Amino acid sequence: MDQQVMPEKKKRTKVELVVILVVIVLAVLTFGIRFFMSNKAVKETALMAELKSIRTSVQLYLITNKGYPPDLKALATQKFKLGDRQEPYLRGVKVDKENYPIDAFGNRFNYDARNGWVQPSEKNYAGW
Q1: Is residue 5 part of a domain?
Q2: pLDDT per residue over 36-67, tens digit each?
Q3: What is the pTM of this model?
Q4: What CATH number has the domain bearing residue 102?
């Protein structure tokens, strides 16, 4: 019987290992950046929806109470009469443990009770 000689495993050179490592790092970075950017875009979309909801709730409060709410906590805790039901002024926005509405980034909104203006507290979105 002929004995077959098993070919010796080809040893990888240092250059090959570096190339493989670079490819892996680039792949991880590419997917990480895409994930971060899509996560940020989702939070920005949620922030726009939350702002619209809170601003609408401020206007509803103004109409039903003939004045702006003293703070945003009032929107989350007080109700208005709609027919024979009591409905909250604000729905669908997360609140912190003190019942103040928080944005998608986990921060409280800035609110001016003199004019009813609501803004994000994130500096990058202050003009929204």
Answers
A1: no
A2: 656 788 888 899 999 999 999 999 999 999 99
A3: 0.68
A4: 3.30.700
